Amino acid sequence: AFLAGNISQGESWCGSYLVGDSAGYGAYQPWGDIWFDYKNLTADGVANYERTLDLTTAISNVSFTKDGTDYTREFFISHDDNVLVGRLEAEGTATLNFDVRFTSKQSGTTVAVSDNTLALCGAVPDNQLKYASYIIVVPEDGTVKGATDRLTVENATAVTVYVSAATDYKNVFYNPDDATDTYYYRTGESDEALAARVKADVDSAVTKGYAEIKEDHISDYKELFDRVPLELG
After folding, report:
1. Which residue stretches of the chain are H helix?
2. Rounded to the nearest 5°, which phi and psi values hold at 63?
């Protein structure tokens, strides 16, 4: 049709035969945003502010000084333990006081399921892909309290945040002619089973602890990254 100059017919046939069912596309969107809402900590008077990403360890850092207290924030994702880890520290006269929120434009609702745990679970509206995610916050020398959709940290000198997430997507070839394949790229897990799988990962990370997870992460990453050195002079 295109070769014959019949553009409208060609476009019509493309729309009918060259694409799938748009109701099942899903969408490439952020899972969500994790917010740290600090109390009584503003940018006024901040000195020595620095943000870094160390490609030799795959760890990002933020550091600054304010009113005699040194603040550091460290983030990395561990392949070994299947968690994102955030480590926040305050060394000096001030302590860490902030709320932790987990917002999303997906259809799920964030719920504080305990005093140190947030859950964000649901399904993508158009193709019903299930997802589950959990955040556990572990303070040092302070407290953490859950309320509705957030966790509140008070008077901590250090806080470790563990995050894990997964969907019920099944990464295998789907054969539309196979009548036994009823899940269409899905694991077939129930909401409860998917949530339990994710929760198990984050619980295991909390038990293992920040120091050991970081050590294993660096070792695992360097096994790949350090295979090739490159010097540009």
Report:
1. 7-17, 191-208, 210-225
2. -145, 145
The answer for 26, left when phi > 0, alpha when psi is -120 to 50, beta otherwise, is: left
pLDDT for residue 176: 67
Sequence-ordered list of residues with C-beta below 8 angstroms from that of 136, at least 6 positions apart, any chain: 116, 117, 161, 162, 202, 203, 205, 206
Residue written as token pair 């999303």 = 104
pLDDT class for 183, splitting at 50, 70, 90?
low
Supply 127's token pair.
Answer: 């193709």
pTM, 2 dp: 0.85
Q: Name the token pair of 202.
A: 């984050």
Structure tokens, 51: 């943000």
Which residues are registered as beta bridge partners of 63? Answer: 50, 72
Q: Which residues pair with 169 in a beta bridge?
A: 186
Asked if 195 and 29 count as a contact pair (C-beta separation under 8 A), the reply is no
Beta strand pairing status for 59-66 and 69-78? antiparallel
CA 176 to the chain's CA centroid: 32
Number of H helices, E strands in the chain: 3, 12
The encoded tokens of residue 152 equal: 């509140």
DSSP state of 43: S
